[in-house]
């Protein structure tokens, strides 16, 4: 069972989004959540998003997110995020994130693209372990180049953060059998930089344009962290509105890849399997030294009530990808991909930027249900 309730709070004048935003306008989305699963028990929580708009600032002045969840089997999860488009009077868009989690049923399936899966072992909890993690991260971006008529911009990005994680395992779990690097616990301090090209017409529900990002994160050793390493990441997205009357569906496509070097712990290895990579597989189903994956999604809004800033839509998707480890070579780049498919519904509440999404993904091993705020990409 999933329960979703929305509460809208607006300060200032009556608004219509996104056509006109008269003066400073604040929109708050409040979503209680209740769900039951066998691995985490009864889960209850709340997710709150606060948007602060101004007609001369895009996409908003600031965005605040708060999520708190707890379950009857010991899951505790909190996340706080604050983003602003101007920082200390400078044209730097910054984001601060503080998070912590105790997950009693995280999953570890080993390393490699062909890591084994057994339904009986899955039911017995052989792939589960308790994970405890916490961290803080800051990221920022400043525009280096802006095309005429705002048709695109190139940003320099930077980030820094600290992350701590430890696995609490027992002798009956795969985590204890494999003993991957990092299960005894440790912390990493990262420093990152990169480039971001952006010319989508909307960051939250794009109908045209593209987005390309290149980034590298470096984690030095000594007192900065227990695992010296580096991670290289790339992400390419394209959005096309198809000429279908009334529905005007959007074809959204994404390709992404990452590579780690050095003494990376298991939790920093690129992985596939969650609501952001391969929907339909268990979380962290595949881990490796590198990964490539793609997502193809067809989206359309089917009904709206403009007076209440409400829309509902549907989408169908296909995901595919694989991980790489020592022993793989270039000939493996385009073969042995794991593939999933599925669909879902989306609603825009209170503001076009606040989108609630429910997906069901199917793989060759199982199906998974996801609920999140915002489109996958």
Task: Describe the fold and architecture.
- This protein is mainly beta and 377 residues long.
- The chain contains two helices and 19 strands.
- The protein has one domain: Porin (Beta Barrel).
- The protein has helices spanning 119-123, 174-178; strands at 8-11, 25-37, 41-54, 57-71, 76-84, 92-107, 128-146, 153-168, 186-198, 209-219, 229-241, 250-262, 271-272, 286-287, 290-305, 310-324, 338-348, 355-362, 367-373.
- Mean pLDDT is 90; it is low at 1-22.
Features:
two-stranded antiparallel sheet; Porin; 17-stranded antiparallel sheet; 3% helix; 2 helices; mainly beta; single chain; disordered N terminus; 377 residues
How would you sum up this structure in a few lines?
This protein is mainly beta and 377 residues long.
Count of individual helical segments: 2
**Terminal-residue CA separation:** 26 Å
CATH superfamily: membrane protein fhac: a member of the omp85/tpsb transporter family
Count of discrete structural domains: 1
User: Describe the biggest sheet?
Assistant: 17 strands, antiparallel
Low-confidence stretches: 1-22
* Top-tier CATH class: Mainly Beta
Q: What is the overall shape?
A: globular
Task: Kindly identify the CATH topology.
Answer: Porin
- Secondary-structure arrangement, i.e. CATH architecture: Beta Barrel
What portion of residues belong to β-strands?
A: over 45%
Q: What's the total count of β strands? A: 19
């Amino acid at each position: 069972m999933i329960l979703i309730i929305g509460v809208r709070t607006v300060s200032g004048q009556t608004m219509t989004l996104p056509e006109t935003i008269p003066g400073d306008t604040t929109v708050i989305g409040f979503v209680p959540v209740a769900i039951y699963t066998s691995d985490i028990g009864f889960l209850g929580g709340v997710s709150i998003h606060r948007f602060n708009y101004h007609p001369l600032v895009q996409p908003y002045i600031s965005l605040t997110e708060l999520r708190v969840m707890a379950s009857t089997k010991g899951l505790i999860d909190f996340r706080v995020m604050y983003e602003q488009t101007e920082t200390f009077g400078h044209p730097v868009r910054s984001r601060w994130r503080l998070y912590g989690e105790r997950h009693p049923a995280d999953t570890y399936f080993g390393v490699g693209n062909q890591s084994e899966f057994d339904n009986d072992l899955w039911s017995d909890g052989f792939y589960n372990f308790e994970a405890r993690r916490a961290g803080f991260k800051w990221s920022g971006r400043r525009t280096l180049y802006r095309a005429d008529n705002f048709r695109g911009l190139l940003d320099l990005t930077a980030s820094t953060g600290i992350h701590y994680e430890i696995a609490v395992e027992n002798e009956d779990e795969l985590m204890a059998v494999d003993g991957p690097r990092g299960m005894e616990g440790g912390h990493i301090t990262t420093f990152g930089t990169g480039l971001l090209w952006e010319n989508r017409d909307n960051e939250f529900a794009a109908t045209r344009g593209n987005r390309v990002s290149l980034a590298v994160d470096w984690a030095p050793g000594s007192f900065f962290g227990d695992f010296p390493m580096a991670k290289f990441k790339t992400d390419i997205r394209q959005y096309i509105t198809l000429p279908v009357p009334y529905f005007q569906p959007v074809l959204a496509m994404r390709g992404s890849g990452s590579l780690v070097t050095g003494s990376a712990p298991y939790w920093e290895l690129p992985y596939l399997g969650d609501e952001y990579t391969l929907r339909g597989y268990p979380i962290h189903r595949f881990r490796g030294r590198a990964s490539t994956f793609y997502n193809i999604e067809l989206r359309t809004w089917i009904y709206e009530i403009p007076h209440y800033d409400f829309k509902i839509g549907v989408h169908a998707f296909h995901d595919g990808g694989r991980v790489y480890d020592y022993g793989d070579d270039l000939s493996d780049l385009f073969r042995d991909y794991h593939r999933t498919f599925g669909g879902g519904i989306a609603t825009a509440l209170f503001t076009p930027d606040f989108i609630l999404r429910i997906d069901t993904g199917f793989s060759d091993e199982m199906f998974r249900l996801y609920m999140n705020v915002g489109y996958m990409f």
